[in-house]
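pinging the channel bc i need a second pair of eyes. not urgent but kinda urgent?? the chain im working w is below, pasted from the shared doc
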Amino acid sequence: MSRIWRYVLAADNGMAPCSDDGMLSLTCCKPLIRRSACVGEWVVGFAPKGIRRGHVAWAGRIAEVVSLGEYEQRFSGRRDAIYKLAGYSWGDQEILTPLRNDYHADEGSRSRDRSGKNALIFEPFWYWGGEGIAAPDEISDLAHYYVGQSARNSSPERIALLETWLRSVAAPGVHGKPRDAIMEGHHREAPRAAGACNRRAATRRGDKKRSC
């Protein structure tokens, strides 16, 4: 059964998720989701309850699951392409070299990032950032406000409710900016609607898709 993964977006600095150039991706933090989620499943990031309880900061359906090394090869220079493939270890595990010293500079954070193994690319997606957007009760009760992430109480009916609600409030695309400070020199984002920017992102991604 498909799932809705949920977590609290405690830090929203444009890195996780990254919505640059009309494409939404998740390549760092949330290792359980990146390691376990499959194509066709949904991820929802809720604003912290101290900011706006029951508000959705972003949501999207997973269109591609690719390894972190492959992601950097395909999207070199993208803000969240921060781990470069350096080779393979026993069992064909990727050996990844960090490319940035201004984000997750400590080895604990980098190890957690690498343990997620994959980068997720979303389409369709809705990104509001900031305080997010108020969700109806049947969606807001999915919120996960604690450390970690959850996929409990997922069902085809809940997924249908989620997608119907999202499409009723806005077209897919970027509708706001990250809530927290952006790291200087890496902010290329401007609010965009769906359409040309999403089609361009789809062209850049190509046709390759992989499920879990």
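so Helices lie at 31-36, 49-52, 68-74, 107-115, 137-140, 156-169, 196-205. and DSSP finds seven helices and nine strands in the chain. — does that match what u expected or am i reading it wrong
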